[in-house]
Amino acid sequence: MPDTPQARLVVNGTPRSFAGDPRRTLLDFLRLDLGLTGTKKGCDHGQCGACTVIVNGRRINACLSLVAMHDGDDVTTIEGLGSPEALSALQRAFVTHDGFQCGYCTPGQICSATAMLDELRAGWPSVVTEGLSGPSDPSDDELRERMSGNLCRCGAYSNIIAAIREVLQTEPREASA
Amino acid sequence: MSATYDAPDRRNLLDHMRQGVIGKPLDRPEGPLKVTGRAPYAAEYDLPRCAEGVLVGARVSNGRVTAIHRDEVSAMPGVLGVFADPAMLRRPAQGGAGKAPAQDVTQVDYKGQPVALVVAETFEQATAAAKALRIDYEDSSDSAHFDPDAAGVEPPKKPTDLGDLEAAMRDAPHHVDLIFRTEGHASAAMEPHAAIAAWDGGELTLHGSFQMVAYNVPELAASLGVDPARVRIVSPYVGGGFGSKLGISHDAVAAAVAARELGRPVRVVLTRQQVFESVIRRSETRQRLRLACDETGRLVGLGHEARVSNLPDEKFAEPVTQATKFLYAGDNRRLAVQVTRVARLTAGSVRAPGEAVGMQALEAAMDELAETAGIDPIALRKRNLPDKAPGEGIPFSSRTLVEALDRGAAAFGWDRRHARPCQTREGEWWIGMGVASAARVNMLAPAEARVRLHPDGRVEVESDQTDIGTGSYAILGQIAAEMLGSPIDRVTVALGDSRLPPGAGSGGSFGAASTGSAVLRACEAIRAELSSRLGVAAEELTLQDGLARGGNRSDTLVGLLGGDMLEETGRIEPGRTGKDYSQATYGAFFCEVAVNAFTAETRIRRMTGAFGFGRVLNAKTARSQCLGGMVWGIGSALTEALQFDLRDGHLVNHDLAGYHVPVHRDVPALDVILLEERDAVASPLQAKGVGELGICGAAGAVANAIYNACGVRPYRFPMTPDTLLDQMPDPF
Ligand code: FES
Ligand code: FES
User: Fold this and answer.
1) pTM of the full predicted structure?
2) Which among B224, B331, B420, B621 has most CB atoms closer than 10 A?
3) What's the topology of domain B356-388+397-443+582-727?
């Protein structure tokens, strides 16, 4: 066994440390070591987006990343965005628009959308954007393109886009957690 | 009251209640838990000393395990054991089996079949040891069949043969005789199959991901050789099922075997690849459609013959012609499904078994017949609605097909469609519109539910019914709130635990109507007690917001209860209403596509679905069920195909990178129209099922739109560019 790697990171505002099997992914660290099971494992191969978390403000697939690589990082999971008693704007909109059915892809969709809205605000273009300065008034197709890494087998897509659009329109400057 | 539903309950109780919550688009009560990551799914229980198990799949396609080199991995770090117990499952249980499926993993039926379980302290250790485990096989792949086109077919079971189809085809002025092929599908629920097993003495508690708990308990108990009374299944949140979690699968028995042996809890989660390779597939189909009509478009002949596949000894055969049986008229009929045996993983129920693939072929054939006969495709469908179910002579319980076609057409703007193809071009895209009918059989299933009315007026609903995203938590609460005049926030619903009364489970779209009827009946019994306490006839009792009124009397509910808790268990079982009537849900799909003139890539631009499924219990969750179905229709139309290697039967695209379910960008804004309907024949709720209707025919509308756009008739689903390209018209 090689040297045990170590990492100190902040998860949802709480300092955490890791020292253990170098093969442990960030996803399994969250789920198994910290008991933060809101982050889901749908494929463990970067193909579904169920494991999306926000690291230093950017969305990543936690299954494609080893926890040992996250020394010094700031991680936000679905649990850090809101609680049943205090839902974030997106979480609330997902409930009212029925942006989920089974709910298994949902934490990933919401983490992804949270960071995606920041990307939009920062003026990042996507493959469907005209020009390179980012869309000023993003179309539904723009949102769909940007959310396409998050699969939903229940097919809640129309409602997910409606939920994101509501938040985009009502809270254009909301900063992510 | 007899539990059996023999005569339609036409009292229509729910429409006479006053609470006003039934049918309303209420949010799901479990929504806040799901959107914050607090709803626990099967693998997410934190049990002390829980060990991690990883299954190992067979490297041969057919044969026998002759040696497992346990010793080579048992010294690896953390390894606790290697299991290949005779109890472990070779195949998952089919939906509703209620008994043990094929066991004994020394026998190999298909490539990727689990043959061993490695358990270690951690997931990484178990994964490494599972990869390292060497297994010897006796390979008998030479004697197995892998290509359904090359293997022989069995004679059809219960074919329909009426009149003389050959003569009708010969003599009718218009006919089509077409061959369609559909590829296999995976359920691909986002939550992989998972189980945590924990024994306490002889009692097993299994956290699992299941659709039909009341059947899964006996399946698990029989597989393990224990008394079902000593098995508890907990499955309150299920990350999608779509048929793949109807029966127990490899994970549950393997976890239970290892946990029993090791004396500590064991978690087994299938990898995404193992889900694809070993749980349940929808069979590929080859379908021959023969349709013949007279000058006015009246069908005189209808043939629908399908060939599907499965493993040897599996009874399930994709019931491709299920809706063809009752949907359209035509005196001369032949319907038949034949099975061929191949060494591919078990074929079974995937969302809307039968109609999901049968309806798209039938509806594409109807479109071609309409064109051949020079009749409007909507008119052709309306002209052929039979008065009674063909061959059986029984009446239809209710049928909203005409309304669905009319309302859908109006909402979609069908009048803007050009009857001839290749009339609209936008840049490099051909634009076209298509229509298809939707139909899906409807059924009740045995169900029980318990309702408690507490002295303070709180209501509790309990059943082992599951909510796999379908909305069970929402609708069961709404039924109880409506019947007992309770504000919805005073109702709690507990589901998915085998200690609760056995619900219908989630399958075949029967969960809501069946378990909902059990809730209704429990509430009716409580109402009977309340009305006698108030001193009025049951029909006179009005309950609203915790107040009871009737005749010239009134009281608060709390006052009437006088400190007592009322508890009743309601039951329903399918009865003569299921035999005396043809029951189905109906609808219509309208679709606009763009087909790239150069690449033949198809994009869905818009899609409208209008659906009639009896009473709508919750307009929000029902609409979501329809949306989800339509998304599945898009997948079936354009991208979803299980690809098997014909040399050894192995599934080539065994994950979400290779098997393409629709993503956000594949799905435009979808329009859903819910048609209000009351069907007393279907259930005391006047409700039917809605979980599957949204797929049943959807891909047919896409096929017809593709033809309307570019003039190419698709006969292969999914309609990927390669299936169309060589017939595309000159793009210039
Ligand atoms: S679990 Fe990470 S992308 Fe699927
Ligand atoms: S809600 Fe079930 S997968 Fe998205």
Assistant:
1) 0.98
2) B621
3) Aldehyde Oxidoreductase; domain 4 (3.30.365)
